[in-house]
């Protein structure tokens, strides 16, 4: 029964992909197909091994160097790359068929083993890969011992099967994430050396051995053998590492940099005048909020629910995004992001995210009737090295003025210090929280943060209703059904408010006069392959 | 003098151990788990964190960590960064760049500072002197990052005379503008030091004697006034070399220079003890040697100074 429904998933994804590619502008006639595009980046935290690259500095590079089973288009829809098809009739057992003719840049063919071996490497306990948890739903995965992914079976060179430990209808959605890239066999001989000079199968490759100069940048050139959906129309990419966004911005102004995907705060007011239609300001897959721990007095039970709603309604998000962020944030209406398929601004109960001082005062008084709040100070913890002070002060002022309680920001010197108190349950009040999606899916915004006992659920939220809806969504037979369940799950969150959603970060980027066709992807990274220059 | 130099060099040993121990302890005492912080909001499984902590010896008590570090240090192994790079590689990349920047800045501030200071001192109370005082006061009171931003905007973005930032290899030519920014405050101090010293020495007995002997004004000024006036300036330059090498964080940030200041700053934020301590150890040696050179220069500048046995 599920067969046809599931077959539809890949079809609809392909259809979407078809739309997206046909929208692409044809390259300008005078564009130089050998031109090198320069763009900003940051020193990767680890050697460039896909399963150990979990931050944006390295992710930007591995995405260009590798082609996985699928890749994401500008809207976050998947398009097949190495995969010919990814099919399942029960959402648990998947059969992956590969296209013929893909090779790594050292000439080795991309086969089923390239994927299976790479995934096994990434998942193995003793390899301590940062992205190992992405494989935890494949049968055989273990968090505390070396164990082979028994759910992965090579059928032949172009076919392998995957057995998940529980059904997941939108499992293929995650396969464009860097953790799922294939590796050539040479990688396993010496992974550290491979990570310095990675050999991939993506649209770009290293310009030469040692093209990655640490702390300076990396030079990529077009991979002539690449024949996927991201075929470059330029000659290569110079990714220059910047310690500050401000220096990168000056370089675009001074003509030393073609594309910048992060405008510094100091230029929020001026970048639009200066760059005009050579700039972009659109929501990104980044959700920002603050959390109230359940282990604190006043913040659990019925009293907590009332107080959480009161706090949420006492914040004037529209004004803060406008004044502090100059419109480079978008007020939140759910717990995900507008760039994700399934985002909604009309969830039941989302009016709790609107500024409503009268209702806030009323709810706060009701909570006081249960147990008086007294003159306890309400604080929001944040790391002072991350540029958070301005909005924290604005939010606490908004709360103070509406509810008449004492509200302040509580700065920690570093992210590490703030994280320490969070994970040891030592907070004295709320804490800033944020999430950037790894792959475009509602599930990725919800499960890691609010599921009972989940890795990043520090503040102790636990709701059977939410957990059940999440599991039902994961096991749903179609993506549409899954989305409906995830939206319902968010309606539970809107009632409980384990986190107070604030806004979505926008990607604010600018580019120089010499480049054209700059489009930013769902993950706030420009689609480099389609940029033309000359 | 050999004896004196040897004694001074021996003093480096306790300074080295004291400084590395203290710095290591300070980095160790930074709040929070540096490994967990590497991953930001997106925490991997606790097993991954545990293994990484063990790999970097962070699961051991402080004194054990320090002894392991020192033990490896004397075998030429400075440890690795959290990204798996050898700290010695990081140093080999950062120090030459910072050294070039510091040398340029030092040359700039010494050359122009002494000339302007000398002329101002000789024409005390005149227009040139007054303007030199005003300009140096301005440079001292305006923070470096303002000077840096303004110069980058004017000469980099608007006029296009210099590159807005320095490219990866940081050739000498591209470092000129950053060196001017870096030197600006010290330049102002040197102008003032030289000026005051020259003005003082003009009234000294030995200058009057030299003039009375009938020496030319030029000879009096260069050999007698200037040479004696340089003692405090050289002291300042010696100390300044150290701060130019470590203290260039702001300038390095503005011009995206991959130097020592920025590297150490990043390592402190990450809680990367081996990187911080290794860099500091080299800085300590540079400081001590620079000060030793300054002390030895005193004798050359002022014949009245002798080194006690």
Automatic annotation (TrEMBL), chain B:
The way this protein sits in the membrane is described as: Multi-pass membrane protein
CDD domains (alphabetical): TM_PBP2
Q: Which residues form the ABC transmembrane type-1 domain?
A: 95-298
Q: Which Gene3D superfamilies match?
A: MetI-like
Q: What broad class describes the main subcellular location of this protein?
A: membrane
Indicate whether Transcription regulation appears among the record's keywords: no
Record localization: Cell membrane
- Known PROSITE patterns for this protein? ABC_TM1
Mind telling me which residue stretches traverse the membrane in this protein?
12-30, 97-120, 132-155, 175-191, 225-250, 276-301
Question: Record's GO cellular component, any one?
Answer: plasma membrane
Any single Pfam family the record assigns to this protein: BPD_transp_1_N
Enumerate the Gene Ontology biological process terms: transmembrane transport
What keyword terms does UniProt attach to this protein?
Cell membrane, Membrane, Transmembrane, Transmembrane helix, Transport
Q: Which family does it belong to?
A: Belongs to the binding-protein-dependent transport system permease family.
Q: What is this protein called?
A: ABC transporter permease
């Amino acid at each position: 029964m599920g067969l046809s429904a599931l077959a539809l998933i890949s079809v609809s994804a392909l259809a979407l992909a078809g739309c997206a590619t046909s929208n692409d502008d044809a390259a300008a006639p005078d564009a130089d197909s050998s031109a090198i595009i320069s763009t900003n980046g940051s020193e990767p935290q680890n050697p460039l091994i896909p399963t150990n690259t979990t931050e944006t500095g390295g992710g930007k590079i591995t995405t260009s160097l590798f082609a996985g089973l699928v890749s994401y288009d500008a809207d976050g829809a998947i398009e097949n790359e190495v995969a010919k098809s990814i099919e399942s009739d029960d959402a648990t057992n998947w059969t992956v068929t590969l296209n013929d003719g893909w090779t790594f840049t050292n000439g080795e063919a991309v086969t089923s083993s390239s994927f299976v071996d790479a995934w096994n490497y990434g998942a193995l306990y003793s390899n301590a890969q940062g992205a190992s948890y992405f494989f935890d739903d494949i049968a055989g995965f273990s968090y505390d011992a070396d164990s082979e992914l028994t759910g992965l079976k090579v059928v032949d060179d172009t076919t392998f099967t995957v057995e998940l430990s529980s059904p997941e209808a939108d499992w293929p959605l995650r396969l464009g994430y860097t953790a799922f890239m294939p590796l050539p066999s040479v990688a396993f001989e010496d992974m550290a050396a491979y990570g310095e000079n990675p050999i991939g199968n993506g649209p770009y490759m290293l310009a030469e051995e040692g093209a990655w100069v640490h702390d300076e940048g990396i030079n990529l050139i077009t991979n002539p053998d690449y024949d996927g959906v991201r075929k470059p129309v330029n000659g290569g990419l110079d990714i220059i590492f910047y310690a500050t966004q401000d220096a990168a911005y000056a370089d675009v102004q001074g003509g030393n940099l073609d594309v910048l995907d992060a405008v510094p705060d100091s230029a929020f007011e001026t970048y639009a005048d200066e760059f005009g239609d050579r700039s972009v300001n659109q929501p990104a897959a980044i959700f920002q909020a603050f959390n109230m721990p359940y282990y604190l007095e006043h913040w659990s039970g019925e009293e907590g629910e009332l107080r959480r709603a009161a706090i949420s309604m006492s914040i004037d998000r529209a004004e803060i995004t406008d004044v502090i962020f100059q419109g480079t944030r978008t007020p939140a209406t759910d717990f995900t992001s507008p760039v994700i398929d399934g985002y909604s601004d009309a969830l039941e109960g989302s009016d709790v995210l609107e500024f409503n001082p009268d209702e806030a005062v009323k709810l706060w008084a009701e909570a006081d009737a249960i147990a008086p709040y007294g003159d306890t100070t309400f604080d929001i913890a944040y790391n002072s090295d991350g540029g958070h002070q301005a909005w924290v002060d604005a939010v606490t002022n908004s709360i103070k003025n509406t509810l008449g309680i004492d509200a302040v920001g509580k700065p920690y010197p570093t992210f590490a210090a703030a994280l320490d108190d969070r994970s040891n349950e030592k907070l004295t009040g709320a804490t800033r929280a944020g999430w950037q999606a790894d792959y475009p899916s509602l599930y990725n915004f919800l499960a890691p943060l609010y599921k009972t006992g989940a890795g990043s659920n520090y503040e102790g939220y636990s709701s059977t209703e939410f957990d059940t809806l999440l599991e039902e969504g994961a096991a749903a037979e179609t993506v549409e059904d899954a989305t409906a369940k995830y939206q319902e799950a968010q309606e539970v969150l809107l009632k409980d408010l384990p986190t107070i959603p604030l806004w979505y970060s926008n990607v604010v980027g600018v580019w120089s006069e010499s480049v054209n066709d700059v489009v930013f992807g769902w993950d706030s990274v420009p689609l480099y392959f389609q940029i033309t220059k000359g | 003098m050999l004896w004196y130099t040897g004694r001074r060099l021996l003093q480096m040993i306790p300074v080295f151990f004291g400084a590395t121990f203290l710095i290591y302890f300070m980095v160790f005492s930074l709040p929070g788990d540096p490994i967990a912080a590497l991953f930001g909001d997106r925490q991997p499984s606790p097993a991954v964190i545990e293994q990484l902590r063990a790999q970097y010896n962070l699961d051991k008590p402080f004194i054990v960590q320090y002894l392991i570090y020192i033990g490896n240090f004397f075998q030429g192994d400075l440890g690795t960064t959290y990204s798996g790079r050898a700290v010695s590689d990081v140093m080999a990349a950062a120090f030459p760049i910072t050294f070039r920047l510091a040398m340029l800045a030092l040359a700039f501030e010494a050359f122009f500072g002494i000339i302007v200071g000398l002329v101002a001192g000789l024409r005390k109370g005149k227009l040139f002197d007054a303007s030199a005082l005003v300009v140096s006061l301005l440079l001292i009171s305006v923070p470096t990052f303002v000077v840096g931003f303004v110069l980058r905007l004017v000469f980099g973005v608007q006029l296009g005379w210099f590159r807005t930032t320095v490219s990866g290899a940081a050739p000498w030519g591209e470092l000129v503008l950053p060196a001017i920014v870096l030197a600006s405050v010290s330049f102002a101090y040197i102008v003032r030091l030289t000026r005051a010293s020259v003005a003082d020495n003009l009234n000294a007995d030995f200058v009057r004697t030299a003039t009375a002997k009938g020496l030319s004004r030029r000879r009096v000024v260069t050999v007698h006034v200037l040479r004696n006036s340089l003692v405090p300036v050289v002291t300042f330059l010696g100390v300044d070399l150290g701060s130019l090498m470590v203290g260039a964080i702001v300038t390095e940030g503005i011009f995206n220079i991959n130097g020592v200041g920025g590297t150490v700053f990043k390592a402190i934020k990450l809680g990367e003890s081996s990187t911080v301590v290794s860099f500091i150890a080299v800085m300590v040696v540079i400081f001590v040697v620079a000060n030793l050179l300054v002390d030895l220069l005193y004798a050359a500048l002022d014949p009245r100074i002798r080194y006690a046995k």
